TrEMBL record:
Heterotrimer of A, B and C subunits. Its EC number is 6.3.5.7. Keywords: ATP-binding, Ligase, Nucleotide-binding, Protein biosynthesis, Transferase. One of its GO terms (cellular component) is glutamyl-tRNA(Gln) amidotransferase complex. It is an enzyme of class 6 (ligase). The gene is gatA. It comes from the Bacteria. This is Glutamyl-tRNA(Gln) amidotransferase subunit A. It comes from Methylophaga frappieri (strain ATCC BAA-2434 / DSM 25690 / JAM7). PANTHER family: GLUTAMYL-TRNA(GLN) AMIDOTRANSFERASE SUBUNIT A, TRANSAMIDASE.
Length: 453
């Protein structure tokens, strides 16, 4: 099959199913077919790499040259990116084909894809339920076979939680592994890009192409990129798996617990040993995150002022009116809530009480993990506390929504890698198993994930 044929197949499926699912904000037919033709030429000239000609979907948070990059906000509805994010550039160079830009929570703030300016995304497993968020469009597109692989970003769980709710393999790499250049910033010290795939093997191929040092991102780490596919089949004999007791207690749906526990048991038959561990500061993660993330987002989003790009209010009276109305009209409720919390936390006199305190808690959370990794190779637990929930179920209660990320947020605060893999079903809805690794241990995570499948 040629890349053009493959690309047409997915474009047709998108045009057929997207009106119902709303997984894509933009479909880039023309760009896709141009890239597919170029890929076919490379294939014929035998200058192709392993990913050449494979279509993919990008979360609409990655700047894509000449294509609207909205971050699912009215604020950027008319923004055409003038350059490519490093992730997009690298995958283009690998010969991949961009099918379009996927829906998401506005500026990646949410866990259900319900905060998008373009409307909610349906979960293909049950269209009355959410696909998770914030990378909900990528997850739904994958689950409905509208794309064979997709990119996502994860600030507090946004790759792993939608992967769990849509039965995918989603990896959040170590902070610094993948360049953030051209990825619209939410909370810069937590944001990481990663693959959302049908298997650990597919995720490994995408990791090979996405990872690496980038001098345009000051937090990018200069460290060799291993071949993530080379160790997928390594034996798990002697692997020690840590089970944090805090991940199996309050807040976890008992049926999800059962499914995750039986998935973990399976690893014993593959030669692994299970060990109960403790991450005593787990309960600090959500309050810490909801100081750090809003504080950073309030600063990052200050660039959306209606002056240089994005939404601009009509007929402003003066500069203040331009700022106030452009931002008032351009941002949705959740984004405004975060900006207000963050601005408050950073304001003079409160910094020590909130932001500084949160940084100290962050260190405690990180130290818990480092101590645990003295005794175990990987940590396992649930990805999300429950399977996909219904639309509207948590929208009136921000705290209930925030608790959705109970088991994912701590790894972002620590900067560690984590992967969610399909673990089974509860009432016909997918449930994910989360595997957390030490810094830069993505190859081992993918190996452990691959051996399960
Ligand atoms: N759900 C979390 C939030 O709303 C995490 C989002 C993310 O990882 N981008 O902030």
């Amino acid at each position: 099959i040629s890349s053009v044929e493959l690309t047409r197949h997915f474009l047709d499926r998108i045009h057929q199913h997207n009106p119902d699912l709303n997984a894509f904000i933009s479909v880039t037919d023309e760009l896709a077919l141009t890239q597919a033709k170029a890929a076919d030429e490379r294939l014929q000239a035998k200058t192709a790499g392993p990913l050449t000609g494979i279509p993919l979907a990008h979360k609409d948070i990655f700047c894509t040259k000449g294509v609207r990059t909205s971050c699912a906000s009215k604020m950027l509805d008319s923004f055409i990116a003038p350059y490519n994010a490093t992730v997009v550039e690298k995958l283009n160079d690998a010969g991949m084909v961009t099918l379009g830009k996927t829906n998401m929570d506005e500026f990646a703030m949410g866990s259900s894809n319900e905060t998008s300016f373009y409307g909610p995304v349906k979960n293909p497993w049950d269209t009355e339920r959410v696909p998770g968020g914030s990378s909900g469009g990528s997850a739904a597109a994958m689950a409905a076979r509208l794309a064979p692989i997709a990119t996502g970003t994860d600030t507090g769980g946004s790759i792993r939680q939608p992967s769990s709710l849509c039965n995918l393999t989603g990896l959040k790499p170590t902070y610094g592994r993948i360049s953030r250049y051209g990825m619209i910033a939410f909370a810069s010290s937590l944001d990481q890009a990663g693959p959302m795939a049908n298997s650990a093997e597919d995720a490994a191929w995408l990791m090979n192409a996405m990872s690496g040092f980038d001098e345009r991102d000051s937090t990018s780490v200069d460290r060799d990129v291993p071949d993530y596919t080379a160790t997928l089949n390594d034996s798990l004999n002697g692997l020690t798996i840590g089970l944090p007791k805090e991940y199996f207690g309050a807040g976890l749906d008992p049926q999800v617990a059962q499914t995750v526990e039986s998935a973990i048991k399976h690893y014993e038959s593959l030669g692994a040993t299970l060990k109960e561990i403790t991450l005593p500061n787990t309960s600090l993660a959500i309050p810490t995150y909801y100081v750090v993330a809003p504080a950073e987002c309030s600063s990052n989003l200050s660039r959306m002022d209606g002056v240089r790009f994005g939404h601009r209010a009509e007929d402003p009276k003066d500069l203040m009116d331009l700022y106030t109305r452009s931002r008032g009209e351009g941002f949705g409720d959740e984004v405004k809530r975060r900006i207000m919390i963050g601005t408050y936390a950073l304001s003079a006199g409160y910094y020590d009480a909130y932001y500084l305190k949160a940084q100290q808690c962050r260190r405690l959370i990180r130290d818990d993990f480092l101590k645990a990794f003295e005794d175990v190779d990987v940590i396992m637990g649930p990805t999300a506390p429950s399977p996909a929930f219904r639309f509207g179920e948590k929208t009136d209660d921000p705290v209930a929504m925030y608790l959705e990320d109970l088991f994912t947020i701590n790894t972002n605060l620590a900067g560690l890698p984590g992967v969610s893999i399909p673990a089974g079903f509860v009432n016909d809805l997918p449930v994910g198993l989360q595997i957390i690794g030490n810094y830069f241990d993505e190859a081992r995570l993918l190996n452990v994930a691959h051996r399960y499948q």
